[in-house]
Amino acid sequence: MKQTRFALTGLAAGIALAGLATTAQAQESWTMTTTWPDNLDLIQIDRHWVELVNQLAGDELNIEFYAGGTLMPGTEVFDATETGSIQAAGDWPGYWAGRSPAFSPLATTTSLFNGVDYLNWITQWGGYDLYQEVYGQFNMVYLPYGITNNESGFRGGTPIESLADLEGKRLRLSGRDQGRVLEKLGGSQVTLAGGEIYQAIERGVVDGAEFSTPGVDYKAGFSEVADYWLTPGWHQSASVFGVMINKDAWDALSEETQETLKIAAQANMAWSLAWSEKQSTEGTAKFLEDGTTINQLSEEDLAKIQDITNEVIVQGACEDPMHAKIYHSMISYLQDYAQWRDVSVPFNMSRVTDNLPSLEDIEACMNQ
């Protein structure tokens, strides 16, 4: 009897050890980088997601994370993830608009979505599937995992107080649609990497520049070179960040681990929006403490920007079917949400929904 018990105990122990060995062997190890270097605070959004995943899926997956620029230039992370040289990379979709204009609205909108709109649209109004459709063309799965509200606006060494002051100004600005709006307002778009903005303002290479939210801008040192700040940040009314994942690496994960990564991404979106707003609050206070002068555009100027934005969005939709499909989804969401939003004023979000890009014009382009 004792021998039998010993044999059963030994067998059970063997099975347990075999199970542990199988688990250890099954663990996936990923290399992940990002477009953001260590000195830009947006990297915290990437790091927070990696920490969540390593805590929640540590038995099945471990992600080794590298700051932007340490493995390769930030411009190369898209190709590296697509080909499988690395398994994952954090990004801002707008950087890839040269490959497909559809990436632009997946990253940000001009005078359209705020941060909660992106959260709503991604999680409940079909936005998530559109990210998969666009990134899927490049052998990738995409998990949106970061949202920030509207960006600061333009900073520079000379004041800009109204749209009239944009005439002839050279301004650092990212985004194709954003550049088109700026040109219609009389300014010209200058493309610069985030790390080049400080010196460009300091040396007068540009008349002004936008980059990110007040918290990120302050930590980038812009109060040292820009005395003037024009608000609001109409050019990027909100921004989305996420992780590109090589499709083969994704398919190698169990369904349970895939679901864990999705859950971590949703949690990270909520965290990032609150984190960013806290950073923006603190950053604004610090800019004012340093003597920064804030000028705000008038309601008339913002209405003009909205009119031009509506034209530019329809123009872009007529140039590319996928671009049109995404904006059609976004504007349909705004129209669907509008009634509840309007009847709950002033306790709902204050986004004006009575002057939107024409859904009919976009549909006409889609049907050509």
Automatic annotation (TrEMBL):
Q: What are the protein's GO molecular function terms?
A: metal ion binding
Q: Which UniProt keywords apply?
A: Metal-binding, Signal
Gene Ontology terms, cellular component aspect? tripartite ATP-independent periplasmic transporter complex
Biological process per Gene Ontology, one example term: transmembrane transport
Give a Pfam family name: DctP
Q: Which residues bind substrate?
A: 151, 172, 210, 236
- Signal sequence annotation: 1-26
Check the record and name the InterPro entries matching this protein. DctP_fam, SBP_TakP-like, TRAP_DctP_sf
Give residues annotated as binding Na(+): 211
Domain of life (superkingdom) = Bacteria
PANTHER family in UniProt: EXTRACYTOPLASMIC SOLUTE RECEPTOR PROTEIN, PTHR33376
Name this polypeptide is given: TRAP-type mannitol/chloroaromatic compound transport system substrate-binding protein
Q: Where does this protein come from, organism-wise?
A: Halomonas organivorans
* Lineage, highest ranks first: Bacteria, Pseudomonadati, Pseudomonadota, Gammaproteobacteria, Oceanospirillales
